[in-house]
Amino acid sequence: MRTSRSAREGGSEALQRGGGGRCACCRYAPWCPACQNLQPEWESFAEWGEDLEVNIAKVDVTEQPGLSGRFIITALPTIYHCKDGEFRRYQGPRTKNDFINFVSEKEWKSIEPVSSWFGPGSILMSSMSALFQLSMWIRTCHNYFIEDLGLPVWGSYTVFALATLLSGLLLGLCMIFVADCLCPSKRRRPQPYPSSKYILK
After folding, report:
1. pLDDT by residue (tens digit) across 89-114?
2. Catalytic residue among 25, 35, 82, 174, which?
3. Catalytic residue among 32, 82, 141, 174
4. CA 99 to CA 70: how far, in whole Å?
5. CA 72, CA 81: separation in Å to the nearest integer?
6. Which end of the chain is more exposed for a tag (fewer CB within 10 A), N or C?
7. Burial 89-122 (b: 16+ CB within 10 A, else e)
8. Nearest to 86, CA basis, from 26, 27, 15, 12
9. By the 8 A CB rule, do 73 and 61 touch?
10. Active site includes 35?
11. What is the pLDDT of residues 9-29, one digit of tens each?
């Protein structure tokens, strides 16, 4: 059986790639009571991984917050089955025997796979993952400003407000530059003055 770290890394990469192999991965959080109750059953199920020819893993979403956005995780624990690039969410009983039957009896075929638009490798879900990672980075910076640098809360908010304004200005300038390069404005020629003979008339 894999250690928690190797299982977490291997399962995360396997599900994100969505390759031809088969993978069953559990998303959990250490503080979640339901996840703690599931852990013994999932570890017992992991011992059958080699016999079932399936990569069984678990991922701590508190250490990899981007996965919450990539897989739209709204409840814990969340279990996904991956086969030939198709992702299916397991919502059955959470016992070792049920997990084994789900794989060996191919019960996963009765579950509708996740749409390609909402698959973890799609552009939409990759963008959601980036937003989740950005939010965690902002939270880390906020804690650093308050705890390590000793800034007041309003001081940290001021820093983020100024950073937001500056990034908005830079983004606006870049968009104007790109728009001007792609669609340059046409310069109008000055209107010629009427000749003197028309003026005398």
Report:
1. 898 899 999 999 999 888 888 888 87
2. 35
3. 32
4. 24
5. 15
6. C
7. bbeeebebeebbebbeeeebeebebbeeeebbeb
8. 15
9. yes
10. yes
11. 444 454 554 444 578 888 888
